[in-house]
Amino acid sequence: MSQALRSAKERALQIVEQASKIRIQDARDNLGARTSGRQVRKANNQMGHTQGALERAAKPPLGWIWGDFFRPWQRMFPGEKHFNADINVRREYIPLSLIELTRLIDLGWIDPSKPIDISTLCRTQKFQINPNIRQYGFDLTEEGADSFPYAIDIEVQYATQSAIAAVEKAGGRIRTSYYDVNALEAAIDPKKWFEKGNVVPQRKAPPKTLIGYYMDAKNRGYLADESDIENNRINLANIRGYKLPDHEMVTEPLKTVDQVFHGIPAGSVISLADKKLYSPTNEIHREYYSKQVADKQYS
Amino acid sequence: MWRGLIRRLSTNSEQIAKVDVSYLRPRHRILAAGGVPPVEFDYERERAARRERFGKFGLASGVSVEELYPTVEEIEEEYAIGLFKELNEVKQEYLELKKKQDEAHKNRLAELEKNLKKYPAALEKYEASLVKQEKLKDEKEIALEKRIREIQEYFGYWMDPKDPRFEVMLEQKEAEEKKAVKLAKREEVQKKRYAEVVQ
């Protein structure tokens, strides 16, 4: 068929027929289809109400953005694996620096001649622990380790080596110990716990993933052997180059593995009105409260 | 009317003391006086409320201590669910896991040390293979590139060599080249013949 005889339609059809299939390398974005950001109108700008707010005002903490103080990134992007991969299982520890602790003792909030644990620290009303959002206690950090003066007997949930060294250098005793949610709730506010008529719970041991930390004498874990801890104490002093005081600060004997409060065994009922402590007499209850169990993995 | 008013105003001081003007309900009056109010509402018969009653008023609340403990059924249910393992079991599990990890770590270190000894020879071999491959690749690539360029120059526009149309063009070009060669031969023969005739 000659060129002149064919209509435009036929020619177009022929072109389409002869054309190869569209392949992936032919597919391209339209111009301007992808942008790296969007232009925000002045009314919608959340980056600060004025230039001065941007330049001089206090900036929100890391992870929070201007204008959105009540929506941190982990809540805005719940599927983000970079910071949200384990948000439903990870444990949070409230940082407590040695300098803060010194100040609390200086100002009389804490009595260094008595054992310091979660209950003592929470009684100062300077810290809030919420076990419902997986806050699991205190992390003793090394800020102020250079000049920590007090010999204390402290129990925290996590401590760095520098913090341990600082406490021991001053003649103190430090142990790291695990509190499960129930025990923690009781320890945070004992009065509230007793007034609710709850039984003093048995403190559960850490789950499998955490038990390593608390069995390590290096971390002064409460599940480690005391002889191991003593060796490690001497060892740490040699490594860090300080002389250990002659005797360690011992205010009271250490809590047992399942004890929440000093001097109160698990399974007791406290009546604040009668000023009495009741222990279970039933064999089943006695066994229940003396059985040492580990906490579940995810709580 | 006047008599009544006079009677009301003339009440003695003892009677005034008995009048309670706090408007507190009896329950709250008892609470304010530090007493234990009687069980009045339905919710107070619930377990949590009874516990709280004990917590607040102690034994005077009338709640026995046994009520505060979990029941045998609850304890048995907890055991049956088996959510909490025994401490010694968990310790054992952890120690076994640690032993395994330590062994794996040790084996890995030994393997690395072994591999490190073989490393110089392996590196040399690899580098030699790299050079050889590069050369081969170069020749092939150059030939291919040349071919592609020729075709594209021939047709006058750029075309993806992966395109199926490219192959058609390639065939077309090859046919034309063959034709050209054939023509050239024929011409040569003709020239020879012509030369022969002219001589």
The count of β-strands of chain A is 7
Radius of gyration of chain B: 53 Å
In percent, how helical is the residue content of chain A?
Answer: 25-40%
Beta content of chain B comes to: under 5%
Mind explaining what this structure looks like?
The complex is a heterodimer of chains A (299) and B (199). By secondary structure, chain A is of the alpha/beta class. Chain A has helices at 8-18, 51-55, 73-76, 81-84, 98-106, 118-123, 161-169, 181-188, 190-195, 208-215, 226-240, 283-290, and strands at 92-97, 135-141, 153-156, 158-159, 173-176, 269-271, 276-278. Chain A has a domain at 84-290: Ribosomal Protein L15, Chain: K, domain 2, CATH 3.100.10. By secondary structure, chain B is mainly alpha-helical. Chain B folds into 3 domains: 16-81, no CATH class; 87-154, no CATH class; 159-199. Chain B is 73% helix and 0% strand. Chain B contains 7 helices and no strands. Chain A binds chain B through residues 20, 25, 194-199, 204-205, 207-208, 211-212, 215, 223, 257, 269, 271-274, 276, 278, 280, 282, 284-285, 288, 291-296, and chain B through 48, 50-60, 63, 65-66, 68-70, 72, 75, 83-91, 93-94, 97-98, 160, 162-165. Chain B: Belongs to the mitochondrion-specific ribosomal protein mL64 family. Chain B: Its main location: mitochondrion. Chain B: This is Large ribosomal subunit protein mL64. Chain B: It is found in: Mitochondrion; Nucleus.
